[in-house]
Amino acid sequence: MNIFTKRPFALALLATAGVVGAVQAGDTISAGKLAKDAKDFYGQTVSVKSEVDRVVSDHAFTLDEDAIFAGPDILVLVPQAVTEQLRHDQKVVVTGKVRRYVRSELEKDYSFFTEGKIVKKDYKVDYKTRPVIIADSVVTEDGKDLMTAAPTSGQ
């Protein structure tokens, strides 16, 4: 038996031990990975590299997950009104804590999130089925962090 026939077993053993596929602090994941495996990321701080899909309010936008059958696009909530600087298909890296969309908890924890009214239009989207990132930073492709460059509003 050579190393090539042993390797699949070794990878399976590492995967079982949680070594393969584990995300380390500082790693960037795709929106598709987060959408597909959301339960594995709840309560963790992640950095997600993706394209902006839709700006839904001054304090919310979605990331395009771009993967077949991964799940719904990722909802991002931002404490500062920075979304006017975003556009569809713009590449960004969002860093923040992943949570479940539980309206009562979000209202209690974030003053900008009032009465669950995060959308300007009715998009007929059930946000309860999506992971939510509470953004600490939103960095554009040219390196501009919109969260540090934006004036605070609505907090």
Written account of the structure:
With 155 residues, the chain is of the alpha/beta class. The chain has a single domain, classed as Beta Barrel (OB fold (Dihydrolipoamide Acetyltransferase, E2P)), CATH 2.40.50. It contains four helices and six strands; from the N terminus they run αβαββββαβα. It has helices at residues 3-16, 31-36, 103-109, 146-149, and strands spanning 28-30, 45-57, 60-64, 74-77, 91-100, 131-140. The chain has a five-stranded mixed beta barrel. β1 (28-30), α2 (31-36) and β2 (45-57) form a beta-alpha-beta unit. The protein is globular and about 35 Å long. It starts with a helix and ends in a 6-residue tail after the last helix.
The total of beta strands comes to: 6
Which range does the strand content fall in? 25-35%
For the record, the count of structural domains works out to 1
The CATH homology group name? Nucleic acid-binding proteins
* Alpha-beta content class: alpha/beta
Give the averaged pLDDT, no decimals: 75
Radius of gyration: 18 Å
Distance between the termini: 64 Å
Quickly give the CATH architecture: Beta Barrel
Strand order in the largest sheet: 2-3-4-6-5
Largest sheet: 5 strands, mixed, barrel
Shape call: globular
**What do we call the CATH topology?**
OB fold (Dihydrolipoamide Acetyltransferase, E2P)
H/E series:
HEHEEEEHEH
